[in-house]
Amino acid sequence: MSATVPEVLKDPTVVAAFITGVVAFVAAGVAFAAGRMQGRGAHWGPVDAVRRQHQREAYAAFLAALTDYLGATNWDMAVTRAVHDRIAAGLTHDDGAARVTAFTQLMSVPLHPIYRSSSVVYLEGPDVIAEVAMTALQSANDVYQAAVGGVMNPADSETVNAYREAQWRLSEAIAFFAGMARTQLNKRW
After folding, report:
1. What pLDDT, on the 0 to 100 scale, is given for residue 189?
2. Residues 51-186, CATH architecture
3. Rg (alpha carbons) of the chain, rounded to whole number
4. pLDDT of residue 108
5. Would you list the domain boundaries of the chain?
6. Pick from 138, 150, 131, 130: nearest CA to 114
7. CA–CA separation, 114 vs 70, rounded Å?
8. Among 83, 103, 86, CA closest to 153
9. How far apart (Å, rounded) are the C-alpha atoms in residues 180 and 105?
10. Under a CB-based contact definition with an 8 Å cutoff, are residues 78 and 126 in contact?
């Protein structure tokens, strides 16, 4: 006497056992997936924290190099220093000579700290931050090129205007980089 399928399914004990088995199987799968995600989080959490710290240090070093360069290449300070140097040397005040001296001093401000720190930002990323950093680096290079142009043609008042414009673009690029870096560092991973 064998039981037919419909008769077996009518037995509440069999149905309860079957449902319990299916629920246990699904629960085991969910528990396995949750444990796997928790293990992955336990592994990657510290890695992400270290990575974020490296990004923070790279962004801060790049920002410091940019702001140092911006301060060291301030036109008004360079001209004032050049005029004072001429007066201290016993020379007369001459705007043209002071402009040549100022552009020469500005051209001598090194860019290598910016290049060095930008390479770390480029490696740390992400791509959007690396692109903004390269734009800021180009703006710093434009300031240098404007100083070179001023040394080549110091009598032209347009060279001073071009230099001031390059300085302004650099300050804008620095502010934009700082904002993007802050957004990157403050987002949740």
Report:
1. 53
2. Up-down Bundle (1.20)
3. 33
4. 94
5. 51-186
6. 138
7. 11
8. 103
9. 32
10. no
Strand boundaries in the chain, DSSP class E: none
Whose CA is closest to 73, among 99, 108, 113?
108
Q: Rounded to an integer, what distance in angstroms lies between the CA atom of residue 139 and that of residue 121?
A: 16
Indicate the helix (H) or strand (E) that contains 161: helix 157-186
The position carrying tokens 């007369």 is 92
d(CA 80, CA 155): 17
* CA 105-109-111 angle, 5° bins: 155
* Angle ∠(126,177,169) on CA atoms, nearest 5: 140
The dihedral formed by the CA atoms of 179, 182, 188 and 189, expressed in degrees to the nearest 10: 100
Q: Kindly list the averaged pLDDT for each block of 10 residues, start to end, along the chain of length 189.
A: 60 70 70 65 60 88 96 94 88 82 94 95 91 97 95 82 96 96 82
Return the closest-CA partner of residue 104 out of 159, 158, 67, 62: 159
Which DSSP letter does residue 121 get?
A: H
Residue with tokens 């205007």: 161
Secondary structure tally for the chain: helices H, strands E: 7, 0
| Residue 74 contacts residue 167 (beta carbons within 8 Å) | yes
Tell me the whole-structure pTM to 2 decimals: 0.72
